[in-house]
Design a protein that fits this description.
The protein is an all-beta fold. The protein folds into three domains: about 5-295, 6 Propeller (Neuraminidase), CATH 2.120.10; about 300-420, Sandwich (Immunoglobulin-like); about 430-465, no CATH class. It contains no helices and 41 strands. A hairpin with a 4-residue loop joins strand 5 and strand 6 (about 60-65). The radius of gyration is 35 Å and the shape is elongated.
């Protein structure tokens, strides 16, 4: 195993190796500092050590944090307001929950809880006052959900839920009041549970019956509502639960294979939910890392320019002639409230004749401005159409980079353009020269919609025009 780091650059994922010395990269946890640089805690299985990696802007600084025995499983990391890391983890040598802190010069470590067999599935969070809160599994006669708090002077611990074997795969988050919310697995009943501190006491509730789980992760939105991702073992799916103010909305996000283990959920400043998780392939094969994002669908609309106020084509009607083969220009505006770019090759315009796509359709359009996607970017496609008919239709199609399908009026069929051909008249008659001698077999083609014959005089010669 090696430790790798993946970053989304706005259009694709950049992946780099952080640490490849030995069998490393287990039980990872990540946080970003004020520069946007990642800090990662992880377990070194070769040496049974807790390790830490920090990106300094050009390269990774890596160091061993705790090597006093078998240290570092279930690591969870958070950065304080100074950008210094705080890590909780399992001490397998002494069966303790441990804590490591960087003070800017050196690391210090201490045991948080050493009563019984504790420290599995630990998760840490910090409030704006740099107070620390930790959820974890505590093992006595039965497994319990336990909770530790650092108030700036000392650690205090308490049991939150002790009904059955509970407290597996814990995850903790704080709301805007600084109150703790915890997701965890109840092994006795095969359920995902949720615990909340309201400032006076803890309350717990069951969210979903799932058989078994291999992971849960929680975050809190701007309404102080919890969102939880978890693995549902009955169908081996990634599931997602959101509190709507009165009940839980639960959906399956991914059901393609055995997916959802080791999930991690995060809500960004826009309120969009991001989840990373494992795609388990098969025993003996490498698993995949997958990513799911809640994204608002993009929209397509008319550009609002002259001749494009209520449609996406100009001209809409025309007449062909040997000297005039028109260019038809299709236009549409792509807008995405998340400022997500369109998927490569989109938007596209579909052009049909008699309900059948013409050769080459759909056609990839080209952006004509540099507007942000959130404000709307115009796309265009010009094409010469030479087959006459009133049976042309068109519509537009687009997806954002997350495969969310665009909505809007331009995604529906529009009847246009109408392409007509000129009327051809065959006229036979006599033309006489100045001597009155007839000239036969003259054929005159009139271009236009009229049926009259116009003449001009040049002596006694008649000219058809």
């Amino acid at each position: 195993m090696i430790l790798e780091y993946a970053k989304w650059n706005g259009s694709s994922w950049q992946i780099e190796t952080v640490d490849s010395i030995g069998d490393v990269g287990y039980y990872t946890s990540i946080d970003l500092d004020s520069n946007g640089y990642p800090h990662i805690s992880y377990f070194d299985d070769t040496n049974d050590d807790l390790k830490y990696a920090k990106y300094n802007g050009t390269s990774w600084d890596i160091e061993t944090v705790d090597s006093a025995g078998s240290m570092g499983r279930y690591s969870s990391l958070v950065l304080d307001t100074a950008g210094y890391p705080h890590i909780v983890y399992r001490d397998d040598t002494n069966n303790d929950l441990k804590y490591a802190q960087w003070n800017g010069v050196s690391w210090s470590t201490q045991a948080i809880d050493s009563i019984g067999n504790v420290g599995h599935y630990c998760s840490i969070v910090m409030d704006s006052n740099n107070s620390l809160y930790v959820s974890y599994l505590g093992a006595d006669a039965l497994q319990d959900l336990k909770y530790a708090k650092w108030d700036g002077l000392s650690w205090s611990t308490q049991t939150i839920d002790s009904i059955g074997d509970v407290g597996y795969y814990t995850s903790i988050a704080l709301d805007s009041n600084g109150y703790s919310h915890i997701s965890y697995f109840d092994e006795t009943n095969g359920t995902i549970k949720y615990a909340k501190w309201d400032g006076l006491s803890w309350s717990t509730q069951t969210i979903d019956s799932i058989g078994y789980s291999y992971g849960s992760s929680i975050d809190i939105d701007s309404n102080n509502y919890p969102h939880i991702a978890y693995f549902e073992d009955n169908n081996e799916n990634l599931r997602y639960a959101k509190w709507n103010g009165s009940s839980w909305d639960i959906i399956t996000i991914d059901s393609a294979g055995s997916v959802g283990m080791n999930c991690s959920l995060y809500i960004d400043v826009n309120g969009d939910v991001h989840i990373s998780y494992k795609d388990h392939i098969a025993s003996g094969s490498d698993d995949n890392l997958k990513y799911a994002k809640w994204t608002n669908s993009p929209s397509l609309s008319w550009v609002g320019e002259p001749d494009y106020a209520s449609d996406g084509l100009e001209p809409e009607t025309t007449t062909l002639s040997p000297s005039f083969l028109p260019i038809f220009t299709y236009k549409v505006k792509y807008t995405d409230s998340d400022n997500d770019a369109p998927m490569t090759g989109y938007p596209k315009v579909h052009i049909l004749k008699s309900s059948v796509a013409i050769s080459g359709s759909p056609f990839t359009m080209t952006g004509t401005d540099s507007n942000s996607y959130s404000s709307g970017r115009t796309y265009t496609y010009p094409i010469m159409l030479v087959s006459p008919g009133t049976d042309y239709t068109y519509y537009f199609e687009a997806y954002d980079v997350w495969n969310a399908s665009a909505t809007g009026t331009p995604t529906s069929l529009v009847n246009a353009p109408d392409i007509s051909t000129p009327t051809v008249y065959s006229i036979s008659g006599y033309v006489k020269d100045s001597n009155g001698t007839g000239i036969s077999g003259v054929e005159v083609t009139l271009y236009g919609s009229g049926t009259s014959v116009y003449t001009t005089s040049s002596g006694s010669v008649k000219h058809f025009v």
